[in-house]
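note to self: dont lose this again. the chain is below, predicted strucutre after it. 372 aa total, dont forget to put it in the shared folder this time
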Amino acid sequence: MESKPFLTSKAGRILWTALTLVRLVIRLPFLLAYFSLEYFRPHPRWTLRQCIAHEILRIWFQYASAVELPFPQSLEPGAENERWAVIPVAEDKFYRSPLLDADIRPATVGGTWYPRKYQSQSDQQEKVILHCHGGAFVLSDARDRNCALAAKIMIQTTSAIIFFVDYRLCSSPAGRFPAALQDVVTSYLYILELGVPPSHVIISGDSAGGNLAVGLLRYIEENTDLIPKPSAALLWSPWLDLMMSPEDVENHHNFKLDYLPPELFTWAVREYRSRHLSVSHPYISPSHHPFPTMTPIWISVGNLEILRDQGVEFADDMQKIRGNHIEFCELSDVAHDTFMTAHLTGRVDKAVEGAANAAEFLRAIKSGVESK
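---
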């Protein structure tokens, strides 16, 4: 059995946590003084807060990657109370290749509703968004502490009811591919089982969650005899190419403008990859694997993020397929996944701008359908 690095042990994590905190305490006053001078800021239109948030986020992800930070998950309601849902596994017939794995089986999954649970009797005219959170498949969850502010922005702009699925993370032994995608399929079937018409369902995902949203859409397209198609898909800074190496990250022209360290990608890919499928497989790295779909897709990226090119290329490749409806939105002066980090970076304005663009996309689709 492959031995784990010292930093991932209990003693190693304690030591590295202490050293990281000391590093932060020493470095923060220097950063405040350094970035107070606009000349030294990474981008001319960034505020002092953005510069500091960028550095703190990078340090956080470097730390989490170094110690391979465990992220415990629970099916208990917690602070979400009645908005929390526990979803049983669907019938076996709904799980086909590539969801079949001798060791990784479909499991009960939890999730949080915003602003409230969907009510089958009174909410039949409401849109429902199934959202897959980001976190490189190894971090974060669907709890209020991570998703409440993003959900609030999405609700304000789209007027939808939203379900954030708490899919299994690959930082746990049973969370490698296809666990997360199994959970997302289970969640989609759960929403349909509540009586939500497929024409009212929107698939959504940010960062790694965008990867899962594409996987779900592809799976539905390949199994239309079993699962009806949603009305639309929203991809926020999607991570679509897991073949990207640490060197690719470091040499990217946006490397110094984004907070994602190469260590995070390395850790995530090592833990997420399937034992049976190549990392280049379409369900693991959707980049360069376009597919036909009747579901309109909206893709958003920040112009300063490392993953920008992946979003652009995927949009272009998908647009080339006849019948596909792809809309692309590029936000200026922001790095990765502003939709989820806006409350930290102070760029709520950009998160709202992106969400408003997505809402306009959804309204245009609805108008087009109704006019037919």
